[in-house]
Design goal:
heterodimer, A: 633 residues, alpha/beta, Glutaredoxin, Ubiquitin-like (UB roll), 5 domains, five-stranded mixed β-sheet, globular, B: Ubiquitin-like (UB roll), three-stranded antiparallel β-sheet, 7 helices, disordered C terminus
């Protein structure tokens, strides 16, 4: 029976779709073969969950299900899907149609799930999700605040479809937008619809997508459609999830773009560090071409669009448009010093339309539902939704998709579940190495996430990295981290970026080592402004943002490091020591047990003392003290 | 062709469509400092020393004069305090990397640079990329910028002595800090980069005087680059000096032998 269900969906009689209306017929046929009440075991197989062992969970499920006696009942289908986004709780298993949510499932739990939940409809309590600070479990995936408070448009298929099975995507509506574009819209109408949606580039800079397509369509000669999947910001993985979980919406978006700008050649530049995404994409392209949805003579309309995957070689700078195109041409991935836009002269000196993965993934929905519909999400200046990779000091780490204009506090506390370990929020870093730190809630009470508002606060939207920082984060260390990253990742050809970053790193190293001098902050500001104004490409002109924004909002921390030789957050090791507060210490002895170097002494129920000469400042006592008696001095 | 109205440092001038700011400035005797620019090579805009401010719309933006093409009426400011300050920093930073460029030394005085501000990096290169671009124009395969970020440096492929080098010495000539050296020793020409032999090119020995001269050029490459204008390969068995002397003897014999002033000496080994 399991074989039967899988065969039904993977080997259709339709060999190739030869007309746009064929997509709809094919979908109806596929739908008619599906039983909506059939049990379904969805296993998240995103990179995070795979690392935690979800592939083994899938194998175990398949093995157990085929070995069970079903007595005529419908055998559940095991479906490995892309990243569900809730990575901190992985591997995730969702049992349909009950919508039961199981978290952190291991191979050993599989047998129990099959025996109890699948066969006897019993819920396994220990695998259910319990929100922070609550004892009540939330059984259904759709009720978990992390999911319930999101608006999933781009991510709608992820976690629902098997990315290696095109029919699964077609059932959920993939390629219907392309079919309608090819039958009832002219290229100009497509561009108008995209322009009407006010969609802005999701790669970070926020250039209006419709405008870009329009200027590309106006050019003469061979045009190229390129997808930028060289996602490199530390901690960001939106594009990877999309490519691994729903490759067809990206491919469909690219095909629609190709139709609009008059191109028949597409390239996908994926970073080499995403092997799963490359594999999934290759399968997706193969399957789409076999069905006649990509490649030559798409849906019998005579429109050709061939997509080729090209992998990077591990350079962050290749996410910059001209460097990406140089790399695509087989040259060294360095930004070119020409004042000409790539929509005029890009890849192979031909007009090239380069958009981010998420931008393309938005297109099919905009075509299907209209630009007006898309604009109903988000704000006037920033329409639609944006996917963020929420990480750092927050309970729920993972991918979140929210409408633009949402309050940042809502993302951190409503969706993210707040800050663990009873710490206070200090700020949120957005935009990766080109972004800045937003000091919510102390210096800015809250901010509505949008291109303009973030820029006002000295940060950028960026590709969607969002790092939550609690009070134990040292802002100088944060900016040192990003500068250090950029020193390695800058292409190094222009003086301001290369030399400026080297000097900023030198100064920040000195400050965190306790050797900061008077005037260092002024020098940092001077170099930072210079780097941002004089550099060649987008990386250089935003390289100093992490430094400048932390100086802007956390100047007193710099001063504490330089003047008082103190790190108030207890991060820069030479600049602080731990002390136990005699008044609040209850003498529970937990710190003494936790200390790896036995630097803490004290009798039970009496104040404990830290032997400073032995202390290695590992934070164990500080993190574990229930009474917050260990103080940073 | 469309003529553009440009205000160059407050003076109204006209520019050709697509002309770079540097060309325009030189036409009007406005000095813009450059380091990585060479009239023989395509602009790379790497040193950023020629950065100026352009106002095409509302806001001034920073662009490099060497490769910014004027396409609209605009205002150009080549010497504003902001620009001068940025250039000063570039000079200070580059001087801290490698202090031996005479051009930078002169500019450091002009811009009142504080050369003590940054700790020296003790490199022997200012990473202007001139040698790599010159090499690309000549052979295209010997020197290139390797590494990225802090690690960027001029190098040969895989840090091995190159086999593509034709020993033309263009890199040596163009280097603004004179840190690429060329030596002719033991019958070979060596290009020395960062104190290491970057290439060895064999030198032919003069069949007339026995001196080494050269280098032996892979003529195929040169011919390919010349395209249709093929010339027969020069006879390269005699050094230029002997060649000149032999020719003089030949001419001398032809015109002065009749006067009997010419004694038999040397061989008439025409070259």
């Amino acid at each position: 029976m399991i074989e039967a269900t899988q065969t039904a969906i993977s080997h259709p009689e339709v060999a190739k779709i030869t007309s746009p209306s064929g997509v709809e017929l094919f979908r109806k046929e596929l739908q008619s073969r599906l039983d909506p009440n059939a049990p379904l075991i969805i296993v998240c197989c995103g990179t995070g969950c795979q690392a935690a062992g979800s592939a083994e969970v899938v194998d175990k499920f398949k093995q157990l299900l085929s070995g069970t006696d079903w007595n005529g009942k419908v055998i559940p289908l095991v479906k490995p899907t892309g990243c569900h986004g809730f990575c901190s709780r992985g591997p995730l298993v969702i049992i349909e149609p009950q919508d039961l949510f199981y978290q952190q499932v291991t191979v050993d739990d599989v047998e129990e799930i099959v025996n109890k939940t699948i066969l006897n409809n019993e819920v396994i309590k220990k695998l259910q999700y319990k929100p922070a600070n609550s004892k009540e479990v939330i059984p259904k995936a759709s009720d978990i605040p992390y999911y319930a408070k999101q608006t999933r448009l781009v991510l709608k298929n992820i976690g629902k479809v098997d990315p290696t099975e095109i029919n699964d995507s077609i059932v959920r509506g993939s390629y219907s937008a392309l079919a309608s574009v090819l039958t009832r819209m002219s290229p100009q109408q497509v561009i108008d619809e995209v322009a009407n949606s006010k969609l802005r580039g999701r790669g970070g800079a926020g250039f209006p997508t419709g405008l870009k397509w329009e200027s590309c369509a106006r050019q003469e000669g061979t045009r190229y459609v390129i997808c930028n999947a060289d996602e490199g910001d530390p901690g960001a993985f939106m594009d990877r999830s999309l490519l691994e979980g729903d490759p067809h919406s990206v491919l469909e978006g690219m095909a629609i773009c190709a139709y609009a700008v008059g191109s028949n050649r597409g390239y996908m530049y994926v970073r080499a560090e995403y092997p799963l995404a490359v594999k999934t994409l290759n399968i997706a392209i193969q399957q789409a071409e076999a069905l006649g949805l990509l490649g030559e003579n798409i849906m019998g309309t005579g429109f050709d669009f061939k997509v080729t995957i090209s992998t990077g070689a591990g350079a962050f700078i290749c996410g910059e448009s001209s460097a990406l195109m140089a790399s695509l041409e087989g040259k060294v991935g360095r930004p070119r010093p020409k004042y000409i836009r790539s929509v005029e002269k890009g890849f192979r000196d031909s007009p090239s339309n380069l958009n981010n993965v998420e931008t393309y993934a938005n297109i099919p929905d905009i075509i299907t539902n209209g630009g007006e519909w898309y604009r109903s999400f988000g704000t006037e200046r920033s329409s639609g939704t944006k996917v963020f990779a929420l990480t750092g000091n927050v309970y729920n780490i993972g991918l979140v998709e929210v409408p633009m204009g949402i309050s940042l506090m809502e993302i951190v506390f409503g969706i993210g579940g707040g800050i663990p370990n009873k710490r206070a929020l200090k700020g949120v870093q957005t935009g990766g190495p080109s972004g800045g730190c937003i000091p919510i809630p102390h210096k800015i009470p809250d901010i509505n996430v949008g291109y303009g508002k973030l820029a006002e606060a000295g940060s950028i939207m960026g590709s969607g990295g969002m790092i939550v920082m609690d009070e134990d984060t040292c802002m100088i260390e944060v900016s040192r981290y990003f500068v250090n990253f950029l020193v390695e990742e800058s292409c190094g050809q222009c003086t301001p970026c290369r030399e400026g970053l080297i000097r900023m790193r030198e100064i920040l190293n000195r400050i965190t080592q306790g050797e900061g001098r008077e005037g260092d902050v002024e020098l940092l500001t001077e170099i930072g402004n210079f780097t941002n104004n004089f550099s060649l490409c987008g990386l250089g002109t935003s390289a100093a943002n992490p430094v400048l924004s932390t100086i802007r909002y956390f100047r007193e921390e710099y001063d504490a490091h330089i003047r008082d030789k103190k790190c108030p957050s207890g991060v820069c090791k030479p600049l602080f020591h731990y002390d136990i507060d005699a008044e609040t210490c209850t003498g529970c002895g937990l710190c003494k047990i936790k200390c790896p170097v036995k630097a803490i002494t004290g009798e039970k129920k009496k104040t404990h003392v830290i032997e400073q000469a032995l202390c290695i400042k590992c934070m164990e006592c500080y993190k574990n003290c229930k009474f917050r008696s260990v103080k940073i001095m | 062709m469309k003529v553009l109205n440009i205000i160059l440092n407050g003076k109204a001038v006209t520019a050709k469509m697509g002309q770079t700011i540097l060309e325009l400035a030189r036409e009007h005797d406005v000095f813009i400092p450059t380091l990585c620019d060479s009239p023989a090579l395509e602009a790379a805009a790497m040193c950023r020393l020629c950065t100026v401010q352009v106002i095409e719309g509302k806001w001034p933006k920073y662009v490099t004069a060497c490769n910014f093409p004027l396409r609209r009426d605009a205002e150009v400011v080549t010497d504003s305090p902001e620009v001068r300050h940025g250039r000063k920093l570039i000079i200070e930073l580059l001087m801290a990397r490698c202090p031996t460029s005479p051009e930078l030394q002169r500019l450091a005085v002009d811009y009142g640079c504080d050369l003590e501000r940054f700790t020296p990096l003790n490199d022997d290169c200012v990473i202007c990329g001139l040698c790599t671009r010159a090499c690309e124009a000549v052979t295209g395969r010997t020197l290139s910028l390797a590494g990225r970020g802090v690690a960027i440096h001029v190098d040969t492929a895989f840090q091995k002595a190159s086999t593509f080098c034709i020993g033309c010495g263009a890199c040596v000539q163009i280097c603004p800090v004179q840190k690429i050296k060329m030596e002719d020793v033991d019958g070979e020409r060596r290009i020395i980069l960062h104190g290491k032999i970057a290439s060895r090119v064999k030198l032919p020995q003069c069949t007339s005087c026995g001196k080494y001269f050269g280098p032996v050029i892979d003529l195929k490459q040169v011919m390919e680059r010349m395209g249709e204008h093929l010339i027969p390969p020069p006879n390269a068995t005699v050094c230029p000096e002997c060649s000149r002397r032999n020719l003089a003897i030949k001419l001398g014999k032809r015109y002065f032998e009749q006067y009997g002033v010419f004694e038999e000496e040397g061989q008439a080994n025409a070259g």
